[in-house]
Write a structure and sequence with these properties.
39% of the residues lie in helices and 15% in strands. It is globular and about 50 Å long. The two termini are 33 Å apart. The relative contact order is 0.17.
Length: 297
């Protein structure tokens, strides 16, 4: 029997509805500020979507735009200004930055209390230590989607995360570990990667290699959370056109897995939903507001 789809639209709408309900109970409106540098079309579309969904949830949205020619000092000055602004609760620096700009240096200018993408060193340290803090959005979305398939108790499940990046691989592994899963991080040096993947109750490909995970890599009935977003030429759509595919070969994996996320329409939609959730949590922590029920988990 083909796998059931874990549709990002359905799960993310549920999260965003919870955020909107929480915002309606707060004494003020949380504010999310996004800094966009350069003219990358995909980033511009993403930022516009974030702004629209922020306002749809009842929050305030600010977008600061800079040309690709902006200097490191200009970007960092803006981030420091937003960090010092008492009216701003969350700050997101849209990545990647244009060539020549240092992401790590810029991220270090964000107040960790407003780090809604969970990328500062303090946020990462709190995640590793198991202390309360703002968690990275895409990894959080992976856990929520796994719970959508298997239920809230993931304890004892075997999880294999393919990829050890700081942005996705490592934090995803840590978040599943916090759910009492048994977690393995696989990478380019892993021996018998297909065999290891077949041990996973939850398989999370996050390497940026199109259709790397084949059907024979998947344990029957497993959950496949595909984080990959790969743009491939699509001449059938016209000259210069592309299509988006994941790190898992969808058709093959869907024949074996019990649950699978589509690409597009999967994890990507969860990233924005978790960003909005983090903005509410950041606002509550900064302003001393009680966290509305449903957002404290």
């Amino acid at each position: 029997m083909p796998a059931q789809l874990i549709e990002g639209k359905v799960v993310s709408e549920k999260v965003r509805a919870g955020v909107a309900a929480a915002v309606s109970k707060l004494p003020g409106k949380p504010c999310l500020a996004v800094v966009l540098v350069g003219d990358d079309p995909a980033s511009a579309i993403y930022v516009k979507s974030k702004g629209e969904k922020t306002e749809a949830a009842g929050m305030r949205s600010i977008t600061k735009r800079f040309p690709a020619s902006a200097t490191q000092a200009e970007i960092e000055a803006q981030l420091k200004t937003l960090s010092a602004d008492p009216e701003v609760d969350g700050i997101l620096l849209q990545l990647p930055l244009p060539k020549g700009l240092e992401e790590a240096s810029a991220l270090a200018c964000i107040d960790p209390m407003k780090d809604v993408d969970g990328l500062t060193e303090l946020s990462a340290g709190r995640l590793v230590l198991g202390k309360p803090g703002l968690r990275p959005c895409t990894p959080s979305g992976c856990v929520i989607m796994a719970k959508h398939a298997l239920g809230n108790d993931l304890g004892g499940r075997n999880v294999v995360v393919i990829g050890r990046s700081i942005l996705v691989g490592k934090p995803t592994a840590l978040l599943f570990l916090a759910e009492n899963c048994t977690v393995t991080i696989a990478h380019s040096k892993t021996a018998d990667l297909p065999g290891l993947c077949r041990t996973a109750d939850i398989l999370v490909p996050a390497v940026g290699r199109p259709e790397m995970v084949r059907g024979g890599w998947v344990k029957p009935g497993a959950v496949v959370i595909d984080v990959g977003i790969n743009r491939m030429p699509a001449p059938e759509k016209g000259e210069g056109k592309t299509r988006v595919i994941g790190d898992a070969h969808f058709a093959e994996c869907a024949e074996v897995a019990g649950w699978i996320t589509p690409v597009p329409g999967g994890v990507g939609l969860m990233t924005v939903a978790c960003l909005l959730r983090n903005t509410v949590l950041a606002a509550c922590a900064r302003r001393g507001w009680a966290v509305p029920k449903g957002l404290d988990a």
